[in-house]
């Protein structure tokens, strides 16, 4: 198989399970390289730089992978978020992800733990409440970006909710509760719409989509009650608010466009999206096959493959 064919390949549950290669995946990837077929690895994880993930893939499968062949769930943030919040305060969810955000160009990104240290009273179970309260009235959080699964779900939910309800300054009033006409000013970006993923466990594991459901439910409950404290949904008497949030990751259009641009970079000069047929390969119809369907308007995919264990039979 030679260009104009190209592949967008899932990783977890397709090529490997929690870093352990699935039978046939190594041979399939070697075949792609031997034939010079453009391909990118597209996953709804990872919480690291693309170059770091490429090194790990190279070690796992024994093939040469570059960072330009990797599309992580948060890769589209490089263009969609960095240019808008480069010098703004941004709260980053995901263990060890704040340094990644800063390397992307979000110069004032703070992880949940870093932010919690500056606002010690917000989650007192983890730290002393004796620290001096820092008022961010003149420098509020402008965006919450969920790079990866929360390190501590309880802490992340509490701090994100505090930031949202106060429009970026937890030391100030909860304006979204007190003023029914107020608007949500803090942008929220999720990078993985998946509720579960396939790991080594027998049954699927919860991932970022479950966190979003929790945050949405808490936000709606808090802003729909006349009480100044959070109330259960049955006591709602106010106009319901909905959390305003954007999402990247499979199967969103932005992730499809990112993968396509990386594929075209592997093709001869002058190649356009009309010149290649792109196959999505994965184990999740709601992410991998849906990515192809989402991108049809871009002439991105004309065929979807749900990969079985015999990887090599699709690459001849």
Helix and strand topology:
Blueprint lengths: L4 E5 L6 E2 L2 E2 L3 H11 L3 E4 L7 H12 L8 E2 L5 H4 L1 H4 L3 E5 L4 H7 L3 E4 H7 L22 E6 L6 H13 L9 H4 L8 E4 L5 E2 L7 E2 L1 H16 L22 E2 L5 H12 L12 E6 L2 H10 L6 E6 L10
Parallel strand pairs: 1-4, 1-13, 4-5, 6-7, 6-8, 8-9, 9-12, 13-14
Antiparallel strand pairs: 2-3, 10-11
Report on this structure:
The chain is built from 11 helices and 14 strands. With 316 residues, the chain is an alpha/beta fold. It has 2 domains: 134 residues, HAD superfamily/HAD-like (Rossmann fold), CATH 3.40.50.1000; 171 residues, Rossmann fold. The protein has a 5-stranded parallel sheet with strand order 5-4-1-13-14. Strands 7-6-8-9-12 form a 5-stranded parallel sheet. Helix 7 packs across helix 9. It starts with a strand and ends in a 10-residue tail after the last strand.
Concise synopsis of the structure shown:
With 316 residues, this protein is of the alpha/beta class.
CATH topology of the largest domain: Rossmann fold
Contiguous runs where pLDDT drops below 50 for at least 5 residues? 297-316
Compute the gyration radius: what is it?
Answer: 21 Å
Count all strands and give the number: 14
Major sheet description: 5 strands, parallel
Overall geometry: elongated
CATH superfamily of the largest domain: HAD superfamily/HAD-like
What is the CATH C level class of the largest domain, in words? Alpha Beta
How would you write the strand order of the largest sheet?
A: 5-4-1-13-14
Share of helical residues:
25-40%
Averaging pLDDT over every residue, what do you get? 83
* CATH A-level architecture of the largest domain: 3-Layer(aba) Sandwich
Structural domain count: 2
How large a portion of the residues is in β-strands, by DSSP E?
15-25%
